[in-house]
Amino acid sequence: MGRQLHVWIPTNRAYDDGRPKAMDGLNELIDSNRTDRQMGARVEKDNVEWCTFFIRRAMHSQHWRPMQDKRHAKPCEVILEFVEANRRRDVSNIVGGGMKYVLDALTRTRYDRRGRVTKPGAAAIYDDSMRWLTNCTTWVRVDPRKPGIQVTVTMEDE
């Protein structure tokens, strides 16, 4: 077993009465894309940036070196534990949306030809392709007081 990075990403949503609500899932992403293409892109970007913030903070505190350069990159395994506020949503909805946001946030930042950011990311893993992400395991549990996502990244020893 190699080095590990542990990240807690709290939910970014709440009910009207202030109780925490689970993060956006696949259904919310699809609904926003059906409403308006720009709205769908905004929902995805907001969720990825939310996850990126907490991943970068954890990387800094745990001295996890960013993998922006292919020469220094190593394959990794990721464990995602989704913590839901209740049992109302389907597992496919929870995992589908949440996995997209977290894996995009874990990968490196990408730029266009003009040097503008096209895809923000924390670079905890080099890429979410099969070459760099060897295994991705998901779990779902319920905690109404503290919904969010627990992320564990394990860098493989080579």
Commentary on this structure:
With 158 residues, the chain is α+β, with helices and mostly antiparallel strands. 32% of the residues lie in helices and 27% in strands. It has three helices and eight strands; from the N terminus they run E-E-E-H-H-E-H-E-E-E-E. It has helices spanning 26-35, 37-61, 91-106, and strands spanning 4-10, 13-14, 20-21, 76-84, 110-111, 117-119, 133-142, 148-155. Strands 1-8-4-7 form a four-stranded mixed beta sheet, with helices on one face. Strands 2-3 form a two-stranded antiparallel sheet. It has a two-stranded antiparallel ribbon with strand order 5-6. A hairpin with a 5-residue loop joins strand 5 (110-111) and strand 6. Helix 2 (37-61) packs across helix 3 (91-106). The protein is globular. It starts with a strand and ends with a strand.
Write a brief structural summary:
The protein is of the alpha+beta class. It contains 3 helices and 8 strands, in the order βββααβαββββ. The termini are close together.
List the helices and strands and how they pair.
Layout: E1 4-10, E2 13-14, E3 20-21, H1 26-35, H2 37-61, E4 76-84, H3 91-106, E5 110-111, E6 117-119, E7 133-142, E8 148-155
Parallel strand pairs: 4-7
Antiparallel strand pairs: 1-8, 2-3, 4-8, 5-6
Mean pLDDT metric: 91
Q: Low-confidence runs (pLDDT<50, min 5 residues)?
A: none
- What percent of the residues sit in helical stretches (DSSP H or I)? 25-40%
Strand order of the largest sheet: 1-8-4-7
Q: How much beta, percentage-wise?
A: 25-35%
Q: Nearest-angstrom radius of gyration?
A: 16 Å
Largest sheet, in brief, is:
4 strands, mixed
- What is the tally of helical segments? 3
Distance between the termini: 10 Å
> How many distinct beta strands?
8
